[in-house]
Design a protein that fits this description.
GO terms for molecular function: ATP binding; DNA binding. Keywords: ATP-binding, Membrane, Nucleotide-binding, Transmembrane, Transmembrane helix. This is FtsK domain-containing protein. This protein has helices at about 10, 15-35, 35-60, 65-80, 85-100, 115-125, 145-150, 175-190, 285-295, 325-355, 375-380, 395-405, 420-425, 440-445, 490-500, 520-544; strands at about 150-155, 160-165, 195-200, 205-210, 230-235, 245-250, 255, 260-265, 275, 300-305, 320-325, 365-370, 405-410, 430-435, 460-465, 475. The protein is α/β, with parallel strands linked by helices and about 550 residues long. Among the domains are: about 115-210, no CATH class; about 230-500, Rossmann fold (3-Layer(aba) Sandwich), CATH 3.40.50.300. α10 (about 325-355) packs parallel to α16. It is globular and about 105 Å long. The model is unreliable at about 105-110 and about 505-544 (pLDDT under 50).
Length: about 550
């Protein structure tokens, strides 16, 4: 049977379809060429808007008001200038055209031979941690391609890794702290010791970002910080961790530094603080810094369990109720503090029941600063029978201090943390660790491991802070040394002396300013002058 010829429409349809596609492609290319400037400007406006949104998000909240005022002022000036709006539109279109231009894909610079060897070493060291025998296509294997595992990397001038992005398989247990700690320890050791590394685990994307942190400033001296009542600056941290900065003076210069601010008072969720460290790590410096800030708005009672006399500069100052170094004075002062806490609670409760505001004598904050209180507890245990442990007198201020306006700050060493008692550990939700510490010690005190590697050698006042359930922050305490210490520099001594309130003396005595007394003389002055105000306060509390 002879085959019938195909209809004309079917035989010529494919050619017409091809011709139609070519016409549509030509029309699209022509339209793209004609509308290319408009597309470029639109893309540039979108990029400028995204950059402005990022700038607004990165701006601290305390600086957004001045930024809005500056932008409004610029818009007003442009609107009043002749031809201002037209020039502004032309400038905006030019900036959008520049931002929206077609950018060539950035080609990553090829690493040198030494950099390649370092990356290969890191890759081979990570193979036992990120590979299993059951993986059919392992990302990590001996002799494998390291460039697939490290998509981003940067080196400093010394040839060491400063930034590294590490991809890892999905079966790695990145939710277990032990597994993460092993990888972090390996990377910090292989990338270069003596530096601090920040580890950002992206569990959804299976990627770890390692960044070398810049050292925190250690040259910031004690000074008046711009804070509200109830805010205390513990120290300074990284700018990426907090959304606030404080204007500080450093000699003749002024700079903005991100602070670690601890808020106390009735609405505080962390009303008490515990600082732990080894001798010479800066815990006493932290207590002196807190005392100088507190004396602006409240009263303090200092108990120096170590008996070193480092708080002799506070003796007799306005707002300083007592500085106790002995067991008897400490017991008397803490007994009065417990009675004062109860008195404030009763007065505030009575005023609330009557519908009145709290009395004025309950509004002024009271701070109890204790340095090494377990040393006094050891003396009480070995002394006369029936002597009460000073730590047992802190239960009332710790449990009810927030409602009564009483704040407790303790500084202790690592070897005596277990002797503080359950009440201290339960109610001191603000924690600070200063000096070198192991990851286990940091996790025990702070309740969570830091996202950075603790260096082996740190300056005094350097450590970590955690307020309640917040993140673990790096911390550098401002330099607040003992002004009576011979090793203190003149600049730091003058900075501390300027912050001290005036010394209050009896009317029949001439004010005598001690000029660098020795430790024995300072201890005698502390014992003699500190016992009188506490005894007077205790008698007043018993009479009430």
């Amino acid at each position: 049977m002879a085959r019938r010829p195909l209809p004309r429409i079917l035989s010529t349809g494919s050619a017409q379809i091809a011709r139609s596609r070519e016409l549509a492609r030509t029309a699209a290319d022509s339209a793209t060429d004609v509308l290319h400037p408009l597309i470029t400007i639109t893309r540039g406006l979108r990029r400028l808007a995204a950059a402005g949104r990022r700038k607004w998000t990165d701006t601290p909240k305390d600086k957004r008001g001045p930024l809005l005022f500056l932008v409004a002022s610029v818009i007003l000036v442009v609107a009043l200038v002749p031809y201002g709006p037209l020039l502004a539109v032309i400038t905006l279109m030019a900036a959008a055209a520049w931002q929206g231009r077609d950018r060539a894909p950035a080609t990553s610079e090829e690493p040198g031979e030494s950099h390649t060897e370092r990356l290969k070493s890191l890759y081979e060291a990570l193979v036992p941690y990120f590979s299993t025998a059951e993986d059919p296509e392992p990302l990590y294997a001996h002799g494998g391609a390291w460039d697939k595992a490290f998509p981003e990397f940067e080196f400093d001038r010394a040839g060491r890794v400063s930034h590294l992005a590490v991809r890892y398989p999905a079966y790695f247990p990145d939710g277990e702290p032990e597994a993460r700690a092993r990888v972090e320890h390996l990377l910090s050791a292989k990338s270069g010791r003596g530096r601090e590394y920040h580890f950002d685990w992206d569990q959804e994307g299976n990627e770890l970002t390692v960044t070398v942190l810049a050292p925190l400033p250690t040259d910031i001296a004690a000074q008046r910080f711009v804070t509200a009542p109830g805010e205390t600056v513990l120290g300074f941290t990284d700018p990426t961790e907090v959304q606030r900065t404080l204007p500080l003076t450093h000699g003749e210069e002024r700079r903005d530094v991100p602070p670690v601010v601890w808020r106390t008072g009735i609405r505080s969720t962390e009303p008490h603080l515990l600082a732990v460290g080894q001798p010479g790590t800066g815990t006493s410096t932290l207590l002196r810094s807190i005392a100088l800030q507190t004396l602006q708005h409240g009263d303090i009672l200092v108990v120096d369990g170590g008996g070193t006399g480092e708080y002799a500069c506070l003796t007799g100052r306005d707002g300083v109720l007592a500085v106790e170094c002995g067991l008897a004075g400490a017991l008397a002062g803490l007994e009065w503090a417990a009675a004062e806490t109860e008195r404030r609670l009763i007065a505030v409760n009575r005023a609330r029941q009557e519908g009145n505001p709290p009395p004025d004598d309950t509004r002024r904050p009271l701070w109890l600063l204790l340095d090494r209180p377990t040393a006094l507890g050891h003396v009480a245990t070995e002394g006369t029978e029936g002597t009460e442990d000073p730590l047992s007198l802190l239960q009332v201020p710790l449990r009810h201090g927030r409602a009564a306006g009483v704040t407790v700050v303790l500084a202790e060493q690592f070897d005596a943390v277990d002797a503080l008692g359950d009440a201290v550990r339960q109610h001191t939700r603000a924690r600070v660790v200063l000096g070198p510490a192991t990851p286990e010690q940091l996790r025990t005190v702070l309740g969570a491991p830091p996202h950075t590697t603790p260096p082996a050698h740190v300056p005094p006042g350097r450590g970590y802070a955690r307020l309640g359930a917040g993140p673990v922050l790096r911390l550098q305490v401002p330099a607040t040394p003992d002004p009576y210490d011979d090793a203190t520099s003149d600049a730091h001594r003058q900075a501390v002396m300027e912050l001290l309130p005036p010394r209050s003396t009896p009317a029949d005595e001439e004010p005598k300013e001690p000029a660098e007394p020795g430790p024995e003389v300072a201890a005698e002055q502390v014992t003699e002058t500190a016992g009188e105000p506490v005894a007077a306060k205790a008698g007043a509390a018993e009479g009430s």
